Amino acid sequence: MPRTPRPLLAAAAAALLLLGAAACGDDGVDEASAAEVTTTAPEAADAGAGVRVVSPAEAAALLDADPAPAVIDVRTPEEFEAGHLEGAVLIDVTSPDFEAQVAELDRDQPYVLYCRSGNRSVTARQVMSDLGFTDVADIGGGITAWVAEGQPVVT
Question: Of 43, 17, 12, nearest to 31 (Cα)?
């Protein structure tokens, strides 16, 4: 059986990732250029640090730690009011001053962030990475996955 060249396999894998990300749901933000990429800060010494996507169970474990990371909800105010993670702070990623609001945060503090399904948080995660944040855990699948796994929300 002939072997498939590695560059062709890599291109096929990248295409599948983009198709999968596009099929995850539409939060009203064009994320076609933002693939689900995990980046780790080179200076991050511990394995948990970096800008990354985590499962709801992993996020719950992070939130049970002492000290717990700050929680950022990047959805709209209406979505936030309908239900959010306990202690979450709303910073709407669609707000014109989103980057300025994030720039005011402590870059050395750990954060957990989420949106509805994981699309808008890609943008937030990228902004935080670009601004030099070193410990950001994005809940993969957003609050939808969080609730599906039986995790609590407050209204």
Answer: 17
Query: Within 13 Å, how many C-alpha atoms sit on residue 50's CB side?
Result: 13
Which tens digit of pLDDT belongs to each residue from 87-108? 999 999 999 999 999 999 999 9
Active-site option among 53, 62, 102, 115: 115
**Binning pLDDT at 50, 70 and 90, where does residue 48 land?**
low
Whether 24 is a known active-site residue: answer no
Give the pLDDT band of residue 33 (cuts 50, 70, 90): very low
Cβ contacts of residue 52 below 8 Å, gap of 6+? Answer: 38, 39, 40, 136, 137, 138
How far is Cα 13 from Cα 90, in angstroms, rounded to an integer?
35
- CB-CB contact of 59 with 71 (8 Å): no
Q: All domains of the chain, ordered by start, with CATH?
A: 6-148 (3.40.250.10)
Burial per residue of 61-76, b for 16 or more beta-carbon CB atoms within 10 angstroms, e otherwise: ebbeeeeebebbbbbb
Residue among 80, 73, 60 nearest 114 (CA): 73
